[in-house]
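Protein modeling request. Please complete all fields; requests missing the sequence field cannot be processed.
Requester role: graduate student
Desired output: 3D structure, token encoding
Chains: 1
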Amino acid sequence: MNYQPTKLKLLIYSGFFIFILFSSAKPVFAFDQSYLKGKAIEQANFSLDELVVEPKLIFSLAGEREQASISLYDRVVNLIDPKFSPIGISAVFTAPKYKIIDQSTSYDIYSFKRRVGDILSGGGVVLAKEDVVDPTPEDSLSLGTNTIKITRVSVAEIEKFVSLPYQTKKIDDPDLERGRQIVSRNGKSGKKLLLYRVRRENGVEVERNFIKEEIVEKPQNKIISVGTKIVVLSSVSGIATTTNLSSAVVSANYPRGTLVRITNLANGVSVLKTVNYTWGTASAPYGVVLDLSWSILDELRFNGSGSGPSVLVEEIKQ
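Delivered output (318 residues):
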């Protein structure tokens, strides 16, 4: 109902502007531009989710319509068509330009939308769930805010395997001769899984949180069998007397360096010792096979009665 009077009014103004274009009446011309811009905004039908920008007015005479630089991002409102009026008037609304900083690249998006999310989606920008946008997609922008920063975020679970070393254990083997060692079982390293949650921003790791660990394969210990079997080469029995020499094993039957097992026949207690002294050219007293220091007699738990304990002396294979 209001369009026809408004159009009539614009036609009247267009005639008036012919005069203005060729005169110096600039204050009147400026007032008329404000009116035309206001009418253009009314006819542009900006929605509530769009920014209203000031248009650029384009005037053209009949048959000489100005060739305006109009892009895909512009919204044009024809106020007066020069085909039907001595002068043509158009209003061009140029969409605000936003600089998008996306990881290490930047590009421009033109949009009338206020909301950041609408600006990006309208520009074909796809956001992942974890991506961070500044300002946020829910924020509404005002004129003058022209930079939107996108941080591409990825969150993933990362597996890391670490080796579990095996241990070496020795066990006595009564079937193996004393002094011998053999590998009964080779060792084998195990494997442990470590699970982390890793956050990367623009491809750079910024956070790593431990989730759990799990033994994937247990290590297998190396087993070495140690021989404990004693091989007796020869033996004698008799009395072990005492000597004041420290840690002395004086033998009447075996040379120095011979390994012997000495057993107290009264209680069955045995010790392994190496002969370190002999009687030499002298003869041992009758029935005496050893002369021992008191420390060794204590090991044999000799009770101190008599000239010494009755012992069994066995030559041991080394």
